[in-house]
Design goal:
Order of helices and strands: HH
Radius of gyration: 15 Å
Largest sheet: none
Structural class: mainly alpha
Distance between the termini: 27 Å
Number of strands: 0
Number of helices: 2
Shape: elongated
Strand content: under 5%
Length: 58
Amino acid sequence: MNITWYLFPLAAAISLVWNASRYESTELILKRSGKMFLQILVFMAIILAVLVALSYKL
């Protein structure tokens, strides 16, 4: 199994714990966690794209 597949459950766990420590409503926790999960994935994809671009033709 490729190690990059561990990023999805890691991002989900981080977003759930972070939002559960901030809010009490289950609906609000899940809503904000989903949004934060997507933000984390987009940020990691941007970082990956930058690293791939910088390492092109090395």
